[in-house]
Amino acid sequence: MDFIYAIIPPRVLSQILVGLSRTTILFIVSSGLSLILGVLRIPNVAHGSLYMIGAFMAYSLSVLFGGGDLGFWMALIGAPIGVAIVSLIAERGLFQYLYEREHLMLLLLTFAFSLVFGDLVKIVWGTEYKSVPVPQMFQGFVNLFGGLPFPLYNLFLLVVGPIVAIALWLFVNKTRIGKIARAAAVDREMVGAVGINVSWVFAIVFVIGCLLAGLGGVLVAPTVSVTLGMDHTLIMEAFLIVIMGGLGNIWGALLGALIFGLAQSLGILVWSQFGIIFPYAAVIVVLLFRPTGLLKSTW
Questions:
Q1: What is the tens place of the pLDDT at every residue in 32-75?
Q2: Domain boundaries, the chain
Q3: How far apart are alpha carbons 56 and 35 in whole angstroms?
Q4: What does the pLDDT look like over 215-252, one tens digit per residue?
Q5: 145 three-class SS
Q6: Per-position DSSP letters for 14-65, written without gaps between them
Q7: Who's near 107: CB < 8 A, 6+ residues apart?
């Protein structure tokens, strides 16, 4: 593997791999947001709050099942489902009646939901920091490229990312619901005229998008402190990624997350004190040359 190190120094290669694992979280959350934007035309500011709820649910399920491997896997299954149920209640209770309203009203509504969800998290889990342990099977390091140590959990994230991307592509392009959703995004009235219940199609898409937010929260929980406010930065990053990739374009979300995650990781290596600036600079550069995003927008 000496030829790899001759091209990319080990320190840089290590940062690239860390950036790719961060990209996985960003993509999973951003793809759910992009799906909702592309089909329902809802700028869901509460998406970040659902990500936070997923992380807190992961903590509770991990504690309930004694931590360790079992607790992690139950959290990985149960927390996204819990977030999906919360989103279904919100969608059936209110969102379904407002799809025809202008985007500003929907934006304000989702912002109100984000405040409500934040207070609910405070009531249920309190204000203290929570932590979710890395499962035992993913503790430790693995040697990549002939001796480069890399955390096993980060390697797990690198595997999960492509699986989610492929599953989402199959849902959108190969399933009946996915095809109907794409058609309804273009002409809702025409789809409804042929006897299809568009309202429930929209509900399914909304729930899947929110489930991805919850999944992102579960996956990030073992790597950060689970706390109130963890949704604020994430939702801003997710919107920037979706805009940079192309509104409603799933592959655009992947490309945007890749650029954002790598810029963030390599920026720390180049200028550690101001590394946070680099991903936002990357967004500015991309939008200067591609104002509508890197890939075709569905809007």
A1: 999 998 888 888 999 999 999 999 999 999 999 988 899 999 99
A2: 27-229
A3: 24
A4: 999 999 999 999 999 999 899 999 999 999 998 888 99
A5: coil
A6: HHHHHHHHHHHHHHHHHHHHHHHHHHH----TTHHHHHHHHHHHHHHHHHHT
A7: 43, 45
